[in-house]
Amino acid sequence: MAVQNGASGSGTAVIGRRRWAIAEGYIPEWSHGPPHLMVSHETVCLLNAGPSEARVRITIYFSDREPVGPYEVRVPARRTRHVRFNDLTDPAPIPRGTDYASIIESDVPIVAQHTRLDSRQAENALMSTIAFASD
Length: 135
Prior knowledge:
Elements: E1 2-3, E2 13-14, E3 17-26, E4 41-48, E5 54-61, E6 68-75, E7 79-84, E8 99-118, E9 125-130, E10 132-134
Antiparallel strand pairs: 1-2, 3-8, 3-10, 4-7, 4-8, 5-6, 5-8, 8-9
């Protein structure tokens, strides 16, 4: 890992890995609260601190069927992008009420974090964890 940072914050930072795994995924079939804002969801938060755009591919794995993907996402240089698994539709929507796992692959080093909002009850639960990194 190399980090170079200028006083203005405009330096170049290279941090992360090219492959990440999230072994746990589940999107509940229903939610409690206002649509989109409080809908139960799974998110992968992608940080690209480097100087080049990241081309990211996400593949979804299931316990009872073949994998689906890749879903393709781009993260501009020195930016972050939060991708809701609920919003992934091409090549196919991720089914609700189904366990799944995901592999995130990038052409440049990135950092991936997994977040879940479960709003099936009025008392919401939010969970976040760093994904497993591998090159």
